[in-house]
Write a structure and sequence with these properties.
Chain lengths: 97, 392
């Protein structure tokens, strides 16, 4: 059986498929974030670690001139426990700046 | 290609999109412009609450209650599931002083038609298990409060408007507002020029920048809110959970002036809600830091400390994302909605601060009434007239 490309998952966390991304692009999405708010791709537990590159590739294939710098990741880069974050002291925070 | 319309809306947030929908529904030809993408501003970095319980008991609450009515049929009207769900909201009361203030507020809310009531610790614990019994003395509870998916809401409004004939252009920034004999004639963007006798400034925190194009000084300021989002977990936060201090921080910041704690300085209150998918959102702060949407450790930590003191079980969750958004803060806590005297055709619909999601349907309705009929049945509408400020 030949798999239908549109049914392939791009974002596994949020179960967003190639077809979903294509439809978002057809509806006018022009950046990874734009696709995110339309499909929820990248909003799951890995925060786009798996899908971001693939979505960027799909945008490039659609000849969309997107600004890759705009898809920077927000804090935290990896899962962070609520209890651990509450334990950060002011001094530690300042040391990080 | 230059297009002509009846109305041009600047802004692709829920306010602009709602106005687009309600105007298109009334047969107006609408063009909506968004300089970035839909939900790129506050509508994409907010919580999901429709909570009249957190509104100050004045015209604001009347507007919110009207919106609650419109929300009930909105999924059906827009032909899309906007994940509207009536959950009820709790305002947690932490001491006797707050209880006293909240009793007064509840009384006023009821007089305006919101069926809220003060409940004791046992009932609060029953409605929201997992609360730290020792941290609260009770809560005020309102049953009609609900939540909605803001992404879906915004796109549903815009898409429905498009199906009714509206034109929507994203990634197009308004650069100049064209005037003819002092009256609005159109908008020039980075790509094209559009013509219409009415231009609506629904640019939220960026409304002052659009206002400058016609020489206005719009007294709206960006007020940052930082939010933490956890991984999806099974149902845990059943209600919209805020604390009574939220009302104080929101409507009466002067009461916190002599409080120099970090928490007070950053305007931190508890605002907790669990999305349909299961992610829990911890909000939020109220900070004046210009157009900076960044996050700060100090603020995030204070947010989480505050929330985990009230619901200790939250400590075990994992954070997947944080965000910062800019609420369009008006000096008197009321949005500015109406034609601006002195610039014929220039309409302002901005300054909803943290209430844009809640107030979007009623704002769309109110604006379409004022533009199509010149009058409205939305109560207290004159209270939102932008001309209450000196705009020139």
């Amino acid at each position: 059986m030949v798999p239908n490309e549109d049914d392939i998952y791009v974002c596994r966390c949020e179960e967003v498929t190639v077809g979903d991304i294509k439809r978002a692009i057809a509806a006018g999405a022009r950046s990874v974030r734009d696709i995110k708010v339309r499909t929820n791709a990248g909003m799951g537990v890995c925060q786009g670690m798996t899908c971001r590159k693939n979505i960027e590739r799909m945008l490039r294939e659609a000849k969309i001139d997107f600004d890759a710098c705009c898809t920077h990741q927000r804090f935290p880069v990896r899962l962070l426990n609520v209890g651990d974050l509450t334990a950060i002291t002011r001094e530690e925070d300042e040391a990080c700046r | 290609m230059s297009l002509t319309a009846d109305v041009i809306i600047i802004g692709g947030g829920v306010i602009g999109s709602s106005i687009n929908y309600y105007l298109s529904k009334r047969g107006q030809r609408v063009i909506q412009l968004e300089r970035n993408y839909f939900n790129s501003g506050a509508s994409g970095s907010c919580d999901t609450m429709i909570a009249p319980n957190t509104k100050e008991p004045n015209e604001h609450l009347q507007l919110a209650l009207y919106s609650v009515e419109l929300y009930k049929t909105l999924s059906q009207e827009l032909g899309r599931d906007i994940e509207y769900e009536k959950k009820g909201s709790l305002l947690l009361i932490e001491n006797e002083d707050e209880l006293h203030i909240m009793e007064g507020i509840v009384k006023k809310q009821n007089a305006l038609g919101l069926n809220s009531r003060i409940i004791d610790v046992d009932e609060t614990m029953y409605l929201q298990p997992g609360l730290n019994r020792d941290a609260i003395v009770g809560a005020s509870y309102s049953e009609v409060d609900a939540d909605v998916n803001p992404f879906r809401l915004n796109l549903a409004f815009a898409d429905k408007a498009v199906s009714l004939g509206a034109k929507v252009f994203t990634h197009e920034a308004a650069q100049e507002i064209l005037l003819r004999n002092g009256a609005v004639a159109g908008v020039k963007t980075n790509r094209d020029t559009y013509y219409a006798p009415i231009v609506i400034n629904a640019a939220g925190s960026w409304a002052p920048i659009v206002g400058k194009m016609v020489g206005l000084n719009i007294p709206i300021k960006p007020r940052r809110g930082q939010t933490v989002i956890t991984e999806a977990v099974p149902p845990f936060v059943h209600k919209l959970v805020n604390n009574a201090r939220y009302i104080v921080g929101k409507h009466h910041p002067e009461m916190l002036k002599n409080n120099h704690s970090l928490k007070a300085q950053m305007g931190i209150a508890i605002s907790l809600v669990q999305s349909k998918k299961g992610n829990i959102e911890f909000g939020n702060s109220r900070e004046f830091v210009g157009y900076d949407t960044g996050n700060t450790y100090l603020c995030l930590r204070e947010l989480l400390k505050n929330a985990t003191r009230i619901i200790p079980g939250l400590k075990n969750l994992n954070i997947i994302r944080t965000m910062g958004g800019l609420r369009p803060y008006p000096p008197d806590s009321k949005p500015l909605i109406g034609f601006v005297n002195g610039v014929p055709g220039f309409f302002l619909a901005a300054g909803h601060e943290g209430d844009g999601i809640c107030l979007s349907p009623v704002t769309g309705k109110l604006v379409s009434d004022l533009i199509v009929d010149g009058k409205t049945d939305v109560p207290a509408a004159p209270g939102f007239d932008p001309n209450r400020f000196d705009l020139f």
